[in-house]
Design brief:
The complex is a heterodimer.
Chain A (H helix, E strand, L loop, with lengths): L7 E10 L7 E11 L4 E5 L6 H8 L7 E6 L2 E2 L5 H5 L2 E4 L11 H6 L14 H13 L15 H14 L4 E5 L7 H17 L3 E5 L3 H7 L2 E6 L2 E5 L1 H6 L12 E4 L4 E4 L5 E6 L2 H13 L2 E3 L7 E5 L4 E5 L2 E5 L2 H8 L1
Parallel strand pairs in A: 3-8, 3-9, 6-7, 7-8, 13-14, 13-15
Antiparallel strand pairs in A: 1-2, 1-4, 4-5, 9-10, 11-12, 15-16, 16-17
Chain B lengths: L11 H21 L7 H7 L8 H35 L12 H19 L2 H7 L1 H25 L3 H24 L3 H12 L7 H20 L1 H7 L3 H6 L4 H23 L5 H13 L4 H23 L10 H19 L7
Classes of the chains: A alpha/beta, B mainly alpha.
Chain lengths: 331, 349
């Protein structure tokens, strides 16, 4: 099972689609990105910027216009599909809709590049499949129909399939789309463990930026103004994340480590208090579009005490029992 | 994908055994039953030249019923196998042997010949050349379409585009055939309509010598692509990432389908619903998506269904026969309806 650990290099790569009778549509040009063994890389960028196209090109599903993709120093262009299948496995967003297909059968697809002409599994193949199923925590699911397990479980089964393919590189197109928050974290964590333990290069695209910022080793950032790569923290400190969205109302709060939507403020408010109650009151007022100010002439004041909220405006006072009541009154 | 996993719920070997027994029973029954019912003893005797069999029984069994039963077996196996391949490659449960427009191509060939070409010449010429010429033009028609499909499939990446082109082509051919029908004489029209009703009995022993090798060749190609067919179930992206050369694999599968469906259509006419229904029967029977099981299963089940249809169509003991196409439709459609109702929704393949 030991395989050479290999690097991925995208050099001056230009990707897109050929259109019959028209000039080819270049989606991304002059992309220069790299990934090392054992690294988990998140490809991020706004909708429609060409993340999927880039990943599909990297997975050899479509040709590219210019530049080169090198895997382990060898150009992807010169490799045979069978050779690529032993180097790179792929997990797409497409849902599996095959009745009568068990989880075992699904994961066993990973052994496809290694089996004989009718796809007979050897004892070794079977043990690799069971190992992959165990690795993603799906023991006991082997005989369950793949169509009748939850989205999170199916995504884990698809990752097990990629594991069974035993490739040094795993490419995933939005593996956490359609999953709930806890499943999103589990998938990220699982991939992180795989990258680290098995020294695999994991490249995934995602829109779950807040999770990606905490979990991945490297970001590949594609924007209209160019492409960047580096640790997530580099991306924050260099202000790259703010360049991500064409919509200038979305910004990245470097201190909070979160994205936010820039609103027009409807009023200024000064808030006093402490602890968790203060933090969440600030969030609530911010959500409703009130600008929090420290000194300068606020339109009204809110004093947060234990479980009561006091609204002070123009000498009048009103007390509330919950944030919901406070906001309802402000409306 | 996996070959006979140990913990499969269905006893695969047992089902195959039962199917094989049913196949033998139906095959013998097809030889026994017909407008006259021949005793079992006489049927067995006819296979041994030295035995004291009734000569007229021997002629009926060897010259008519045996070729017809063999044709039924080849037809059922070929149409079911091409239907299975099309459902998998197009990932569409309603795809059948004719989605690529193969039967349309055959119809066009026959229509041009029977309605167009023959009307220009003396009609007598057509009847003289007989069934061989119809088979020949149908074959030419379906293989021209096949060449077109193979050419397009190496240039078009999207599988849905091919499906839509197949449907459009079929509609265009239907329109041309309607025009030809409108301008042709009554007797020619009847010859064409009879062809569209399908017939197993018109296949002669010498035609069987052409039909059989073509079907065997198509089946061998399908056997070599069983592994790739399994990969196609997951969709083309996954198939490609597993190392399947999509275009080549698709070309071989289309070649197999065209050989199977094209040859049968040429000799027996367009026979419907077997190709769509039988793969579904097998999926329910074996509860599997694995083509290593499904390919032999549809060959066996398709033969059984076609033998059964043939027995029904000749209305044992009576002098008339029903058009085989109507019988397969009446058997196939309830199966499809039953499966839609049973599964609530007709999920994929």
């Amino acid at each position: 099972m030991k395989k050479e650990k290999i690097n991925i290099e995208l050099k001056h790569l230009s990707v897109g689609y050929g259109q019959p009778g028209e000039a080819p549509l270049e989606v991304l040009t002059d992309v220069n990105l790299t990934a090392a063994p054992g690294e988990m890389v998140a490809l991020i960028g706004s909708n429609g910027i060409g993340k999927s196209t880039l990943l599909r090109t990297l997975s050899a599903f479509q040709p590219w216009f210019a530049g080169d993709i090198q895997i382990g120093g060898k150009s992807l262009r010169t490799m045979h599909p069978k050779e690529i299948a032993r180097i790179m496995s792929f997990v797409s967003t497409e849902n599996i809709r095959v009745p009568n297909l068990s989880v075992f059968d699904l994961v066993a697809y990973g052994r496809f590049p290694y089996t004989n002409w009718i796809g007979m599994l050897s004892a070794e193949d079977r043990s690799i499949v069971y190992e992959a199923i165990e690795k993603v925590g799906l023991q006991g699911f082997e005989n369950r129909p793949a169509m009748q397990i939850s989205d999170g479980e199916r995504q884990r089964a698809m990752i097990a399939r990629a594991l069974a393919q035993d490739t040094p590189v795993i490419v995933l197109d939005e593996p956490t789309a359609y999953l709930d928050v806890s499943n999103k974290y589990e998938i990220f964590h699982l991939l992180q463990v795989l990258a680290e333990e098995k020294k695999k290069t994991v490249v995934l695209s995602t829109h779950d930026l807040n999770i990606a910022l905490r979990e991945v080793d490297k970001l590949w950032l594609v924007t209209d103004g160019g492409n960047y790569q580096g640790a997530p923290e580099d991306a924050v400190l260099n202000g790259w994340l703010n360049k991500m969205f064409r919509n200038k109302q979305v910004g990245f709060d470097e201190k909070e480590g979160e994205f936010f939507f820039k609103k027009k403020f409807r009023a200024k408010v000064k808030v006093e208090g402490d602890g968790l109650h203060l933090i969440w009151t600030l969030r609530a007022l911010n959500r409703k579009g009130y600008q929090i100010v420290m000194q300068a002439d606020p339109d009204f004041n809110v004093i947060v005490k234990e479980d009561t909220w006091l609204l002070v405006a123009n000498d009048t006072q009103k007390e509330f029992q919950s944030i919901y009541q406070l906001l309802a009154f402000l409306e | 994908m996996t070959a006979f996993p140990k913990n499969r719920k269905r006893p695969v070997a047992l089902i195959f055994f039962v199917l094989a027994v049913v196949f033998v029973i139906f095959f013998i029954a097809d030889l026994l039953l017909g407008s006259i019912i021949i005793p079992v003893k006489e049927v067995l005797f006819s296979f041994f030249p030295s035995s004291e069999a009734n000569e007229s029984f021997r002629t009926i069994v060897l010259e008519f019923r045996l070729p017809k039963a063999l044709t039924a077996v080849f037809t059922g196996a070929a149409l079911s196998l091409s239907g299975l391949q099309m459902q998998t490659v197009f990932r569409n449960p309603l795809a059948g042997p004719y989605v690529l427009g193969i039967s349309a191509g055959a119809s066009l060939g026959v229509a041009l010949f029977v309605l167009g070409f023959s009307s220009a010449l003396a009609f007598g010429m057509f009847s003289a050349t007989g069934a061989w010429s119809i088979a020949l033009v149908a074959w030419v028609g379906s293989f021209l379409v096949m060449m077109l499909v193979l050419y397009v499939s190496t240039r078009v990446n999207d599988i849905m585009t091919l499906l839509i082109l197949g449907i459009l082509f079929t509609s265009a051919v239907t329109a041309v055939v309607s025009i030809l029908q409108y301008f042709s004489s009554e007797s020619m029209l009847k010859a064409f309509v009879i062809w569209t009703m399908g017939s197993l009995g018109s296949v002669t022993k010498s035609q069987l010598m052409v039909l059989a090798p073509a079907i065997v060749a198509g089946t061998v190609l399908a056997f070599f692509k069983m592994k790739d067919l399994n990969a196609f179930l997951l969709g083309e992206d996954y198939a490609r990432s597993l190392g399947v050369s999509i275009k080549w694999s698709r070309v071989i599968i289309f070649l197999s389908t065209s050989l199977l469906a094209g040859t049968i259509t040429a000799f027996c006419g367009p026979i419907g619903f077997i190709g769509i229904a039988v793969p579904h029967i097998c999926r329910v029977l074996f509860k599997t998506a694995n083509h290593l099981i499904l390919v032999p299963a549809v060959i066996l089940t398709g033969s059984i269904v076609m033998l059964f249809s043939d027995i029904v169509s000749q209305l044992p003991g009576m002098q008339t026969t029903l058009p085989i196409n109507s019988v397969t439709a009446l058997i196939g459609i309830p199966v499809i309806i039953w499966m839609i109702v049973k599964n609530r929704k007709f999920v994929s393949v």
